[in-house]
Amino acid sequence: MFNIFGRSDSASEIKQINPEEALKIIEKNKGAKTVILDVREPHEFKGNLGHIKNAILVPLKLLPLKAKELEKHKEDDIIVVCHSGIRSHSACNILKRHGFKNVYNLKGGMILWKRLGLDSHND
């Protein structure tokens, strides 16, 4: 899809997945080729909603600076998580601009994950 400026509409390129679909991707890859990237702040990561097991915490404001460190995962599936799915969508756009291919935004974020009773950690 093209916008009036002739550039690709990156929002349409971001794959939106729900928690059940995220679990299928994790299971399919047995976790080996799946990165769960949590872009919330540290206090949220350890807060009431917790975080998904084995998630990597990189707050959104630091992601442009840390993208280089994540390059070893450029070909892996990356599920991006935040509180509700808004910051993670922005993070997906940043990753796409840095050449990451298999980027997924977790719709509903940790709010929906927790509401569905899925496992989360507070460590």
UniProtKB/TrEMBL annotation:
Residues 30-122 form the Rhodanese domain. InterPro entries: GlpE_sulfurtransferase (IPR050229), Rhodanese-like_dom (IPR001763), Rhodanese-like_dom_sf (IPR036873). PANTHER family: FAD-DEPENDENT OXIDOREDUCTASE (PTHR43031), PYRIDINE NUCLEOTIDE-DISULPHIDE OXIDOREDUCTASE (PTHR43031:SF1). This is Rhodanese-like domain-containing protein. It comes from Candidatus Acididesulfobacter diazotrophicus.
